[in-house]
Design goal:
The complex is a heterodimer. Chain A contains 7 helices and 10 strands. By secondary structure, chain A is α/β, with parallel strands linked by helices. In chain A, the strands form 2 sheets. Chain A has a 6-stranded mixed sheet with strand order 6-7-8-3-9-10, sandwiched between helices. A 4-stranded antiparallel sheet of chain A has the order 2-1-4-5, covered by helices on one side. In chain A, helix 3 runs parallel beside helix 5 and helix 4 packs across helix 5. Chain B is 71% helix and 8% strand. Chain B contains 11 helices and 4 strands; from the N terminus they run αααβαβααβαβαααα. In chain B, strands 2-3-1-4 form a 4-stranded antiparallel sheet. In chain B, helix 2 crosses helix 10, helix 8 packs antiparallel against helix 10 and helix 10 runs antiparallel to helix 11. The chains are: A alpha/beta, B alpha+beta. Chains A and B meet through helix 2, helix 3 and helix 4 of A and helix 2 and helix 9 of B. The complex binds adenosine-5'-diphosphate and magnesium ion. The site of magnesium ion has 3 residues of chain A, from helix 1. Adenosine-5'-diphosphate binds next to helix 1 of chain A.
């Protein structure tokens, strides 16, 4: 699903956030991306979603070489990836329903289809009763679940999450991770950046560790697919 | 794919529906801040109304002038020694001419008195030993003789009269007014061009502020796969609404200004025994105003969107 080959990323200003990173995430696999703050986790995820471009090497997503993807095809690439952000990135002037519906509306689905899929996604994250509320009236954990519902409503084959539990207490964090496992169980590939070592260890998935922009070790764990 | 389309009525239907939704959504957004929408619309409307109003007034003036074409006169300056009876005889004969509807006789003495009165050279003229002015016949051509060639032929015919020294067509002042109207039209064109640019800048700047205000939203939409076209659409529709609302308001401004002017103008026309009535905006002018406003609104927002949306990228 994701293949990095000797990928490096140098930001304007000269700082090299990633150096010679190579790894493969199989289709249907779930893995954690770990490392200290500044290790390059967010940068790696941004390269997958084409928020940043690599300075060297190749990134393949679903067989597609991202270096060969033109600017105008980026939106269509992103529709195949559900991204979950630590700061949720919700639209606060729209209801929960409208937030979750946005990817479907962007993709041009009809009203009936949108309604059916939005309710299914909200049901999966346990927020079916809150669709008419505004995000500001929800707790942090609930907002994060709105973000997850929005990421999966399009049924993308790949989910990326950047520190999705960063601001949540352990109990809520575990709940969020269980939601990701549910999606993984039905075949979605999942890559989660996190530095919550206790949580990661207790879940027992593959770990990709970054250290100062380099791959440190790839610990084995339960892999799917 | 087949599954996603079930019960949706097809891709085209969804596409049009989406456009219609954005169309009304952008209008709804405008109505959420009525004060600032109204002010922007008013600025656009004033900029559109000024050249439109001047255009309508010039058209009216042109109408008045074309009515005065027929008022062209021919002055026949007679030989100075022509006696009054001969002059009156000629006047009587000319009145029978089919191309002439009226002849007025002005004797040398009358001409002198009028010149004395109008010029203010009273004392200096007293010094003259004899009246230097000739008697004059003022000839009114028939309405049918309006075209310049026919008028010129009439002038040539009158010049051939034995007692006529000089025949002169007095149309110059009408021609001068025409020239002034032409200059006025050019002026309106220049003004309209400048104000059209102003309308585009006003719409463009308003859209630019909207884009900056909704920066976070644009970033999020880009992150979840929104195309440039999708992001552009509501801003373009907003420009469209500003243009069409500005045009409608401008129409009302011009029409009500003409209504205010029509009372005094009509009573002035009455004083001159004229049946002239101040005309309103015709269909072509109204169409140009509304279409132009719409186009300028779209163009202004299109320019702003092109310049500012590309700069907003997720990071
Ligand atoms: N846009 C940027 N410009 C310059 N440096 C950046 C930028 N984004 C990240 N960095 C730097 O790259 C390094 C890795 O950042 P990041 O990928 O966010 O790490 P992590 O997510 O693991 O904390 C950090 O040192 C950070 O300061
Ligand atoms: Mg990070």
């Amino acid at each position: 699903m994701i293949r990095f080959s000797h990928v490096s990323k140098r930001y304007p200003g000269g700082f090299e956030a990633l150096s010679d990173v190579s790894f493969h995430l199989a289709a249907g696999e779930m893995a954690f991306l770990t490392g200290h703050s500044g290790a390059g986790k967010s940068t790696l995820l941004k390269l997958i979603a084409l928020i940043e471009r690599p300075s060297g090497g190749q990134v393949l997503v679903n067989g597609q070489n991202l270096n060969k993807l033109g600017r105008w095809r980026i939106p269509y690439h992103r529709r195949n990836i559900g991204v979950i952000f630590q700061d949720h990135r919700l639209l606060f002037d729209r209801t929960v329903y409208d937030n979750v519906a946005l990817p479907l509306i962007i993709a041009g689905h009809g009203a009936q289809e949108v309604g059916r899929r939005v309710r299914a996604a909200l049901d999966k994250v346990g927020l079916l009763g809150k669709e008419k509320q505004y995000p500001i009236t929800l707790s942090g954990g609930e907002q994060q679940r709105v973000g997850i519902a929005r990421a999966v409503v399009n049924k993308p084959p790949l989910l990326l999450a950047d520190e999705p539990t960063g601001n949540l207490d352990p109990e809520l964090s575990r709940e969020i991770m269980r939601i990701f496992e549910d999606f993984n169980r039905v075949g979605v590939s999942v890559l989660i950046a996190s530095h919550d070592h206790n949580l990661i260890r207790s879940m027992g998935h593959r770990v990709i560790a970054l250290e100062h922009g380099r791959l440190a070790e790839t610990a084995g764990g339960l892999t799917h697919g | 794919m087949a599954e996603t389309r079930r019960g949706d009525g097809g891709w085209l239907h969804n596409y049009l529906l989406r456009h219609a939704q954005t169309f009304f959504y952008s209008l709804g957004q405008l109505s959420r801040s009525p004060m600032s929408t109204l002010m922007t619309t008013a600025v656009i409307a004033i900029a559109l109304a000024m050249p439109t109003g001047l255009h309508v007034l010039l058209k009216n003036l042109q109408g008045v002038l074309s009515g005065w074409d027929s008022a062209a006169q021919i002055s026949l300056f007679l030989e100075r020694d022509t006696r009054e009876t001969a002059a009156l005889g000629l006047a009587e004969r000319l009145r029978q001419h089919p191309a002439i509807i009226g002849v007025e006789y002005i004797s040398a003495e009358q001409a002198m008195a009028e010149f004395r009165r109008l010029s203010g050279f009273g004392d200096a003229l007293d010094a003259l030993e004899e009246n230097p002015l000739p008697p004059v016949l003022v000839v009114q051509p028939a309405l049918g003789e309006q075209d310049p060639a026919a008028l010129q032929a009439l002038v040539d015919e009158l010049r051939a009269e034995a007692t006529v020294d000089l025949a002169q067509l007095d149309m110059e002042w009408v021609e001068r007014l025409y020239a002034l109207v032409e200059i006025g039209k050019r002026g309106v064109m220049i003004l309209a061009t400048l104000l059209a640019i102003a309308v585009m800048l006003v719409v463009g700047n308003t859209i630019r502020l909207m884009i900056l205000n909704r920066r976070d939203e644009i970033v999020i939409i880009k992150l979840i796969g929104g195309t440039d076209a999708f992001i552009r659409r509501p801003f373009l529709y907003t420009g469209f609404w500003y243009g069409i609302l500005g045009g409608l308001l401008a129409f009302m401004m011009v029409e009500s200004s003409l209504l205010v002017l029509s009372g005094p103008v009509n009573s002035l026309a009455g004083l001159y025994n004229s049946s002239f009535r101040l005309g309103g905006m015709d269909l072509a002018t109204t169409g140009t105003l509304l279409g132009g406003g719409l186009l300028l609104g779209l163009l202004g927002s299109w320019l702003a969107v092109g310049r500012h949306l590309r700069a907003i990228e997720p990071s």
